[in-house]
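G., the chain you wanted modeled:
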Amino acid sequence: MKKVFLLTVIMSMLVFSSSFAFSWGMYDFGDDAFDHNNNWSPIDYSQFYSRMDPNVPSPGNLGETGEKFDLEGLHFAMEGSTAHVALTNSFGLSAYSTAWKQHYDLGDIFFSFDNSSKMYAISMQDFGLYEVTGYQGLENIPGSYYGNDYVRNTVGAYKMTSGIKLADDIGMMTFWDDLEADPMYGGSGDTYVFEFAFDMGQLSDFNGAGTVSFHNTLGCGNDLIDEKFTVVPEPTTLLLLGMGMLGMGVYRRIRR
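Predicted structure as tokens:
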């Protein structure tokens, strides 16, 4: 009976540790670093690889696994005026193809607001925040999808080429070994999480609410994340806004 109890305790500890071992460094997005983007892409790569299911990230070569090039999650949250962004992938800053003997860099995280022509980026070179003035698409290097119009046009922006720096050193990277339970095609389960935090007040076209769109890819175009989030003012912000409007109403009545 004691052995059964001890085994139950050990198994419970293992389950607990595997489920709750993940911890964020800058903001608590929950227990899971992954989201619906894991093992999925808005690009249909099955037209290039007959053995692949639609919308599975490209394996790079039939002898490799798509896990090498897998973008696995993008999270966003507001805490007061502070924006928190987290990107999860399986390769860190660079994915290597053994078939092409080529490294493909992680692209910058681009984002913009609805009804605005401005584009911003979180640079993966220096973890700085920028207003984008120029950017490039996929790299024209061996093994990339640069020569395919469908993928190249769908991927769009890959890396910022020029911009106005708004903030320095807004992020951090953390590495977890074998965090993913079910990697594609038996590939490596390594997990890298990039976390960023910055003041939305630094962005001239942010009005406190609306929709923000994020975009991230690799230099080869083997995967893509396009995500939209609704920014809702916190109750305290709404309260302050209401008090301000009430004050203006009282002021007008007094003047009359």
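The chain has one domain: 29-255.

Shout if anything looks off.
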